[in-house]
Write a structure and sequence with these properties.
Length: 331
């Protein structure tokens, strides 16, 4: 259920800390670890104070070895624990891909249901903070393509807490991608009590009749600015926060496009083989005769994210999204 009475203003990173704190207190099988997760509280301080509160046996530092971090978590999950592991940056996950694809995502199927891997792999992703190489990519489509994984991306503090609690309680392996560009850029009232948000359910942030815009993560804030620009021109935009890359909420998306007849997809990751391509395929299969214009994709480029001096050329602006809206409306 969603909701609560006692509220506290939180940023996304604070909401993540709160979710982990609640579950550590509630469930003794939960542990969280990673590089600098214990003493320092993580590079973005998402686990700050938790080692002092719960002890080194439940919140601890790991070696600088991503494959060992995830591999250890797989073994823990198969034997009754519910690990939450943190990868320091999105680009540091790749050494662990063998463990993620070959074991975490497959062990339930491989063992014919005898074993499960209830574990969460958290990491910050995306650009916009002038970081160096390996720190700024948005590769969510890659994880969404792997059978056996669920991929979750919050865009607000409220969603971050509710979705992370659902992820921790899930019996599946969850890739929980955190848009670091807005870790502390958004403050919102969040219930202090425990609540959860279902994984696999998108959220309609703004109802409209002329065009559907779908985004997630840090792109929601940019899309909201574009929606405000469109409103001044008399364009009624239905804005949907996808929230979960896989499983994808086909019903909400299809029903919206059947109503509006147009769709713009916004994501920071590369264009080719991206989430926008999958959403386009869904609309072609489920709402083809309702379309009044081709789907427009407003995405990152098919390049590595530039270093800080050139990053502003890559990052999606509200103006780019608004141009995509106009392109569809004028088709």
């Amino acid at each position: 259920m969603e909701g609560g009475t006692e509220m506290k203003v939180m940023t996304i990173v604070q909401a993540i800390t709160d979710a982990i704190d609640i579950k550590l207190a509630e469930d003794p099988t939960i542990v969280t670890f990673g590089e600098d997760v214990g003493v320092e509280g993580g590079v973005f301080r998402a686990t700050e104070g938790l080692q002092k509160k719960y002890g080194e046996h439940r919140v601890f530092d790991s070696p600088l070895a991503e494959s060992a971090i995830v591999g250890s978590a797989v073994g823990m999950a198969m034997n009754g624990l519910r690990p939450i592991v943190e990868m320091q940056f999105c680009g540091f996950v790749y050494p662990a891909m063998n463990q993620i694809i070959s074991h975490a995502a497959r062990i339930h199927n491989r063992s014919r249901g005898r074993y499960k891997t209830p574990m969460v792999i958290r990491f910050p992703y995306g650009g916009g903070i002038n970081a160096l190489e390996h720190h700024s990519e948005s590769m969510e489509a890659m994880y969404g393509h792997i059978p056996g994984l669920k991929v979750v991306i919050p865009s607000t503090p409220y969603d971050a807490k509710g979705l992370l609690i659902s992820a921790i309680e899930s019996d599946d392996t969850i890739i929980f991608m955190e848009p670091k560009r807005i870790y502390r850029a958004i403050k919102q009232e969040v219930p202090e009590e425990k609540y959860s948000i279902p994984i696999g359910k998108a959220k309609i942030l703004n109802e409209g009749t002329d065009i559907t815009v779908i985004a997630y993560g840090a792109m929601i804030r940019e899309a909201q600015k574009a929606v405000a620009m469109a409103k001044k021109d008399g364009i009624s935009v239905e804005l949907i926060d996808l929230r979960t890359i896989y499983p994808i909420d086909k019903q909400t998306i299809v029903e919206s496009v059947k109503k509006t007849g147009r769709m713009v997809v916004v994501h920071e990751g590369p264009n080719t083989f991206g989430v926008g391509a999958e959403l386009t395929a869904i609309i072609n299969e489920e709402a083809f005769l309702n379309q009044e214009a081709p789907v427009v994709r407003v995405t990152g480029f098919d390049t590595i994210v530039p270093l800080p001096r050139g990053e502003h050329h890559y990052i999606i602006s509200p103006e780019k999204i608004y141009y995509g809206i106009q392109k569809s409306i004028k088709f």
